[in-house]
Design goal:
The chain is an alpha/beta fold. Helices cover 40% and strands 17% of the residues. It is globular.
Amino acid sequence: MRLAYLSTDPGISFGGAKGAAVHLGEIVAALAGEGTDVLVLVSAIEPGTTVPAGVAVEVLPGPGKAASATDRVAYQPALAEWLAGRLREFSVQALYERLALYSDAGSVAARMLGVPYLLELNAPLRDEAARYRTLDDPGAAERLESSTLDGADLVLAVSPPLAEYAAARGARRLEVLQNAAAVERYMPRHQWSDDPVAVFAGTLRPWHGIETIAAAWRVLGASAPPLLVVGEGPSGALLDGLPARFTGHVPPQSVPALLAEADIGLAPYGPNTPRYFSPIKLFEYLAAGLATVVADLPATRAVVGPDTAVLIAAGDAEALAAAIAALCHDRSMRERLGRNGRALVEGAHTWRHRARRILQLATELAEQGGELTPVEARA
């Protein structure tokens, strides 16, 4: 299949290290690994990025990262025309897009060509922008999001709450397709230490549960295990004084080796964490064979159970401390969770699993081509 992956989000660069960029890169690499010819159209490419075989990456024309919402909205008709031309030149068979704010050009271009249009939904972007940043043009953001969701042949949401979000805003066909891990990058664990180390990997932001970790370590006191912190961020100061080793920022390819130094993976999140999260770190911890303690969110509950991880209420420091204490004192429990967690990822939650499902769905939609009627370009 010849598939195009579109991301118009100016904050996501191909080859970047933030979670959204990692997700994009993993999906693209997995699609190419399945023998797909992939054209990636993005707002930016990280300098020095290695592009997988079978993949072409190009930068979209138009307003850049510093552009206003008004400029981005105004450029959508021209971008749709450009996309239609480029996708026609590529002989595209399906368009797969990561939903972005102030953009519906992908939806329009797909309809102009009469090709299947699959839309990936990773977050309620309007809500996030209003809560954490600035939503400059709420009306345009809502209009373009609704038309994109309504125009998609299939919306792939990374968590059950996001599927509900999309359904309430016009999505006609939905499937939950969660995050995953490249399990082949994580060596199988054959030994478990008698002196376990706990690890947190990710950006140190409040909603990731950094304060929860700090509070749990205070509860544990002298019995707390050493803590490995892989990443950096604005909440790092909350961990000052803990028996912790900080790596600072590391490239994604360095994460597997660092996780191999630990035994217990931490993803407690904060008490006000949005319920729509599907943590990539959960799948990475499981792939690394760690005994994982994770917040009980709809997406995590749909993946793990008592045999593969310890679920706690998000932001519950006492529960986190109790779980860590139990794991530290029970090596057999750590081994059981670690082995079962890795087996779970190997069997159902690799990026190759996700790519195969995307291609299966895209092929099914392409075979229904008679139902996809080309339309005229939007005025």
